Amino acid sequence: MTLAQTAFGPQTLLKQALCVLGGSALIAIAAQTSIGWPIAMTLQTLAVLFVGMAFGAKLGAVTVLTYLGYGLMGLPVFSNFNNGAAFAGPSAGFLVGFVGMAFLAGLMVERGVKNVFALALGGIVISALLYIPGVAWAMLADQLVGLDTANWGAGSFSTVWQFYMAPFLIGDAIKAVLAALLIVGGNAALRK
User: Fold this and answer.
1) 76 near 22, Cβ under 8 Å?
2) What's the distance, Cα to Cα, between the start and end of the chain in Å?
3) Distance between CA atoms of 56 and 23, rounded to whole angstroms?
4) What is the pLDDT of residues 69-95, one digit of tens each?
5) Cβ atoms of 187 and 50 closer than 8 Å
6) Distance between alpha carbon 48 and the CA centroid of its chain, in Å?
7) Is 165 helix (H, G, I), strand (E, B) or coil?
8) Which among 48, 71, 82, 111 is least surrounded, fewest beta carbons within 10 Å?
9) Given its phi and psi angles, is residue 9 left (phi above 0), alpha (psi -120 to 50 degrees) or beta?
10) pLDDT value at residue 75
């Protein structure tokens, strides 16, 4: 049972629609919330993991697709108040990868992972998998769709490691642990 099912009972179409609206708004707000220094990180991945774990695989993925749709419609929901123009930039692979991230996080919960340590470990692995589409886009967008990726600092794997991965790994692990704690704590509080 997901956190949303525990909180709201049987999932009617109206309840699912409200979850999608609320979850996509949560991700949009988290995208504008930056923490850390010298590299500022948003809480976007924390929100995506949380939505996936809280809503389940399908509803979590639909929520992220709705969030991405808002950006494509021109709403400033991506980090630094970006909109659909972000899909022509270096973070497009990460944005698209969020759909799979939410789906896998939800699938993990649906398959019965409830322990905080297992959820945190699963969240860390899922966060690491996000780098596959993120880095692939940054490195291959010039060949795939003709974008000039040289100005993104994506010329070689060493620069991708330096600018796209290394500064964010510890933060991603912490956000995965926080998502797991929120889910387990939320479920425990609701059951009481």
Assistant:
1) no
2) 16
3) 12
4) 999 999 999 998 999 999 988 889 999
5) no
6) 3
7) helix
8) 111
9) left
10) 97
**CA–CA dist 32, 11 (Å, integer):** 29
Return the structure tokens found at 49.
């993991």
Beta bridge partners of 78: 82
User: 7-59, pLDDT tens digit by residue?
Assistant: 999 989 999 999 999 999 999 999 999 887 667 789 999 999 999 999 999 99
**What is the reported pTM?**
0.91
Decide if 43 contacts 30 (C-beta within 8 A): yes
Q: Is 35 helix (H, G, I), strand (E, B) or coil?
A: strand
Burial category of 12 from C-beta neighbours within 10 Å (exposed 0-12, middle 13-18, buried 19 and up): exposed
Residue with tokens 């099912």: 5
